[in-house]
Amino acid sequence: MFLTEKHEKYRQKIREFALAEIEPLAHQIDLDQKYPEGHTKKLCDMGILGLQVDPKYGGTYTDTLTYAIAVEELSRVCGSTGITVAAHCSLGTWPIFAFGSEEQKKKYLPPITKEPNLASFGLTEPEAGSDAGATKSTAVKKDDGWLINGTKNFITNASVGKTFVVTARTTPGKGSRGITSFILENGMKGFSVGKKENKMGLRGSDTATLNFDDLWIPDDNRLGEEGQGFKQFMMTLDGGRVSIGAMALGLAQGALDLALKFARERKQFGKSIIEFQAVGHKLADMATFIQAARHLIYHAAILKDKGVWYNKESAMCKLYASEIGNWCCYQAIQIMGAYGYSTDHSPVERYWRDVKLCEIGEGTSEIQRLVISRELLKEELSLPEGFFTIDASKLGG
Ligand code: COS
What we know:
This protein is α+β, with helices and mostly antiparallel strands.
């Protein structure tokens, strides 16, 4: 592997933590559909809640690669913990760190990085999913502040979160340029958490609706300039997609770990089933796709820290990791047969249910392909002028 010793040591530290503290709870929280009490404190004590925030504001940021490794290793044993951390770090804390004023950073970041509290992000609405610019929630100027009304849905950490970064329309008729971001707090008058989702996977993570009913906030809670909310959220999602890629990678690796162990130990027709080509080749493909996904994710993480435009690379890593993640978990079940299919015998069926979200959340695979193809359209072609052009006169007819 091309990682530094520091990164490998960090991976080992998170792996040990995940196996000791998270894995033993993973099955039960999936059954109970409940985010576990005490989980946030454990993550906080490990410094995981501050991974996307500078130490100056209570964070533990060193680089985005370190953060990706943490999400990967947590997801390798528990997808619900992976998504909770990814939503908190990439979507809840990072926008405040990246776009907040000095006062906002000092006020809002230490309580959600140094203390056991979660942050969350509200972009999606009933009528604004892939078309994130169709935000219907409104923020109207009132008494040196803003009156916010609207609904956000499918929000991770909604009922367990303390601090929320949300978008609302501040200028009607201006499309994505009429959207602004705000920082909200759970417990504010007019803020309420609605229906909890009953999900196929990631059942130990908290997903619910947020309602804003004449919620008034001072202008101090506006995040960045008016009209910049959509761009801020797009930049936030570029980072978030690296972490969803890392989550899919962790789940795929977890499925490979189990399938490989099973295929070596399970004997049929007098030999280990890995010795049958049909099984061995599946494992070989899984390991190869996982390695490729890992390279794409780490590359995008490194580009983020270089401060260069990495919109295409972040979409590519999420697209690829989530699609191979699904394939790998599916194949792991096939290799393990009934032992993979049954919840009582192994967690791979949970991994498969969990990884599906990675093809949907933070932009569907279809949106990632749209982002990538738009970027391809913008790129300069490396072929010289006139190298290949369609000559209509040579067409038959
Ligand atoms: N970083 C910075 N700015 C960005 C950006 C990015 N990654 N992507 C777009 N922008 C800017 C554009 O440059 C444009 O700026 P101007 O107004 O100055 O021209 C503006 O944002 C609007 O961009 P665009 O025209 O591309 O917006 P579209 O409405 O066509 O939407 C997609 C583009 C589809 C890419 C966007 O809506 C998207 O990502 N949708 C998926 C949303 C999603 O992931 N939802 C799940 C949330 S789960 S937490």
